[in-house]
């Protein structure tokens, strides 16, 4: 498994989609703070500081930037195996399709953590450039952990979409668009079970995001329901992994045997 993880990580050097994720995470804090500058002075928050900026970044990352970036990158990692007809090679090497896909999802989780560290650094740089108040060493540590944890939870939520759309030739871009709508939908959940259990809302709740203050929620979310939501999506990933890739590898095996028979008949 370690060799698989290492090889998948090296493949990311050829993934230009990574630039999309880096640019998106760079723009997130800039856009969040910029929205304050272009806002009508009467509506502008005079107490906008680092805690507000980090809260806005958590919201923006979860709603738009991280899900799109992770689904595009993870989908590309899986799609290239089918686009290059590489999956048929699994017939002659001791690696099952579910194991290969597990390694790819593992790299997505690692990449999400890297994205979280990068997002923290960019947010700090943006806030310091803007001269925002409320910065301290303990605050940096606490918020850094929240952002990285939030990124990791986002990767768990995105994994079923990565598996589904990554295995359909060229569909991972469509999957990222669907992910955008799924993430955007959480802003409509202000109360009830979905406020806590909806996967993207659950990510925010478990990241320490104040849904009442920053999302206008009408009631306090239930962390236990949020845990249940993440557990359910993780279980779905496990089910999809157990049934993924097998059919296509068997089809590739049949095609390989047919090709050998044809070549033998020509001889």
In short:
This is ABC transporter permease. With 267 residues, the protein is an all-alpha fold. It has one domain.
Describe it.
Helix content is 76%, strand content 0%. The longest helix has 34 residues, at 50-83. It has helices at residues 2-11, 17-38, 50-83, 97-130, 137-166, 172-184, 193-197, 199-206, 211-215, 223-243, 246-266. It has one domain (2-266). It is built from 11 helices and no strands. By secondary structure, it is mainly alpha-helical. Mean pLDDT is 84; it is low at 255-260.
Descriptive tags:
267 residues; mainly alpha; 0% strand; ABC transporter permease; transmembrane helix
Return the structural class. Answer: mainly alpha
Shape label: globular
Order of helices and strands: HHHHHHHHHHH
Largest sheet: none
Number of separate structural domains: 1
Q: Quote the beta fraction.
A: under 5%
Rg over alpha carbons: 21 Å
Summed up, the helix count is 11
Mean of residue pLDDT values: 84
Share of helical residues: over 70%
Unreliable residue runs: 255-260
Topology:
Blueprint: H1 2-11, H2 17-38, H3 50-83, H4 97-130, H5 137-166, H6 172-184, H7 193-197, H8 199-206, H9 211-215, H10 223-243, H11 246-266
Helix pairs in contact: 1-4, 2-3, 2-4, 3-4, 3-5, 3-6, 3-8, 4-5, 5-6, 5-8, 5-10, 8-10
């Amino acid at each position: 498994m370690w060799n698989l993880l290492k090889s998948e990580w090296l493949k990311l050097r050829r993934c230009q989609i990574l630039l999309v994720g880096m640019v998106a995470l760079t723009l997130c804090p800039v856009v969040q703070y910029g929205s304050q500058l272009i806002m009508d002075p009467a509506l502008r928050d005079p107490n906008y500081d680092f805690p507000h900026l980090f809260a806005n970044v958590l919201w923006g990352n979860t709603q738009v930037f991280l899900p799109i970036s992770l689904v595009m990158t993870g989908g590309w990692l899986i799609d290239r195996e089918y686009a290059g007809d590489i999956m048929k090679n699994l017939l002659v090497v001791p690696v099952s399709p579910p194991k290969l896909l597990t390694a790819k999802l593992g790299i997505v989780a690692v990449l999400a953590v890297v994205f979280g560290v990068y997002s923290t650094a960019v947010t700090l740089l943006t806030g310091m450039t803007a001269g925002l108040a409320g910065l301290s060493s303990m605050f940096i540590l606490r918020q850094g952990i929240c952002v990285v944890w939030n990124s990791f939870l986002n990767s768990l939520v995105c994994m079923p979409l990565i598996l589904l759309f990554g295995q359909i030739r060229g569909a991972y871009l469509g999957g990222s668009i669907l992910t955008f709508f799924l993430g955007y939908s959480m802003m409509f959940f202000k109360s009830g079970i979905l406020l806590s259990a909806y996967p993207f809302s659950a990510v925010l709740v478990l990241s320490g995001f104040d849904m009442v203050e920053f999302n206008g929620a009408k009631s306090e979310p239930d962390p236990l329901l949020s845990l249940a939501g993440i557990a359910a999506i993780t279980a779905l990933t496990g089910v999809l992994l157990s049934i993924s890739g097998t059919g296509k590898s068997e089809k590739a095996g049949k095609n390989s045997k047919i090709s050998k028979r044809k070549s033998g008949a020509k001889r």
